[in-house]
Amino acid sequence: MKKTIYTIAAMLVFGLTAMSGVEQASRATSSQAEAAAPDQSTTNGSVVKPEVVAPESSVVDEVIWVVGDEPILKSDVEAMRMQGLAEGVTWGGDPECVIPEQLAVQKLFLHQAAIDSIEVTESEISAGIDQQINRWIQIAGSQEKLEEYRKQTLKEMRADMHDEFKNQQLIEKMRKKLVEDVKVTPADVRTYFRNMPADSVPFVPTEVEVQIIEHRPRIKQEEVNRVKNQLRDFTDRVTKGESSFAALARLYSEDPGSARQGGEMDYVGRSLLDPAFANVAFNLTDPNKISKIVETEFGYHIIQLIDKRGDKIKVRHILLKPKVSQDDIDASMSRLDSLAADIRAGQLTFDYAATILSDDKDTKNNKGLMSNPTNDGMTSRFQMKDLPTEVARVVDTMKVGQISAPFEMVSRSNGKTVVAIVKLKSRVEGHKATITEDFQVMKDVVLAKEREKVLTDWVVDKIKHTYVRMKDRYKNCNFQYQGWVR
Q1: Which residues are CB-contacts of 380 (< 8 A; sequence separation ≥ 6)?
Q2: Which residues pair with 213 in a beta bridge?
Q3: Given this model, what pLDDT does residue 407 score?
Q4: Pairing with 353, which of 94, 114, 308, 378 sits 20 to 30 Å away (CA)?
Q5: What pLDDT was estimated at residue 30?
């Protein structure tokens, strides 16, 4: 699979293996150069072989750093630099120094995650990939434009992104574990801000509370039948020996987390699966047979048993999602437009409509009020950047108490296309933080400082106990962390 900027193998063993391999390759190259070069005689009759040095610009790829047992390639750095250029990233220094160090630090966290048995689930990886792709679609304007721009199908994008998102989440979980015991007291917060210059007091961005009603467009029965018939065809082909379940999953499954693995899911307990999926999967007994078609909130599945181990099961599955037509979307738009008009006319409240009519299972039992997960728990307050893109774009122009026109968006819970209306419940305009009104904001600032110090100290200590080797041209870099150069 093509390397991506975040694709980093987990370090399982520290050692000199990678570097010894590089040195052997280097010696072999030198030997070949000597054999090919003409002899040059000195005045005393001895023979001197000319040193063959390839210009750096002509080197296609090379190992430039080794951290533990893991190499960092020149191509890794270049790919990350180009991605940053496309996204407007500023490196805060020479990219040729900053980027290798960032990749090296990532390897330290990944190695520790492997030691501590940190894991991420396929569903977590899939959710992260879907969020990124949805953001790209919003920027590009449509799925078709995104695929044209990246010269990849969505399935190919998901496959390419899988490992990078897995590693990102492993690193994030490892960082959280390292700082989970860091605490600050109210006295710490007051002392910190008492000594802070007035012009350094943080600015609190605008925060909003938003209620939402979602309506899932009704999919035509003809489209459902098309999906079911395709799944029945897959079952027939596997049963007749014309194809394997895994091959069909790789080609056709719309579950990005498992498709690239031939539809295979790792051992999982019943509680982590959709109830309808779990009921069928846990009743399978014969690995040679394929389940009936199963409908979940994600779409339609067929399942094949691989193994059972205690209260966990390992299966393959193929997921197909019925496509929503524009007519279906327009019908939902019309329905929510009428509902919004009724709410504005006082015929019913937004709270009641959200509770009774919304298809968003995450908010309907809370009168449609959206919740924002933070490090300190759930809150109903959002900064604009934390809202779903489609919601933020609508809310940005609204007044408190106003009901929006219906708009199309991607559901956060299952990635399906839905139509929504929102109500802006409250807005607190951006302002300079005060200890009386914004204690939590100030506490978060102090806590972030303390956590960053703990992480910095951990990285510096980890470097001391890790084998590090780099090309000489990097030894004069001004690194963020001490100890890289030995």
Answers
A1: 209, 369, 370, 371, 372
A2: 421
A3: 96
A4: 378
A5: 40
Q: What would the two tokens of residue 42 be?
A: 């000195």
Handedness of CA 474, 477, 480, 483 (dihedral sign): positive
* Alpha carbon distance 298, 278 (integer Å): 14
pLDDT over 60 (residue 17): no
The string of pLDDT tens digits covering residues 251-292 is 999 987 788 889 998 888 888 888 999 999 999 999 999 999
Q: Are strands 268-269 and 312-320 parallel, antiparallel or unpaired?
A: antiparallel
- Dihedral of CA atoms 138, 139, 144, 148 in degrees, nearest 10, equals -160
> What is the model's pLDDT at position 55?
54
Q: Which tens digits make up the pLDDT trace of 366-406?
A: 999 999 887 667 889 999 999 998 999 999 999 999 999 99
How do residues 192-214 score in pLDDT, each as one tens digit? Answer: 888 888 888 888 889 999 999 99
- Asked whether the beta carbons of 214 and 336 are under 8 A apart, the reply is no
Cα distance from N-terminal residue to C-terminal residue, the chain: 34
| Residue type for position 469 | R
Structure confidence at residue 48 as a pLDDT band (50, 70, 90): very low
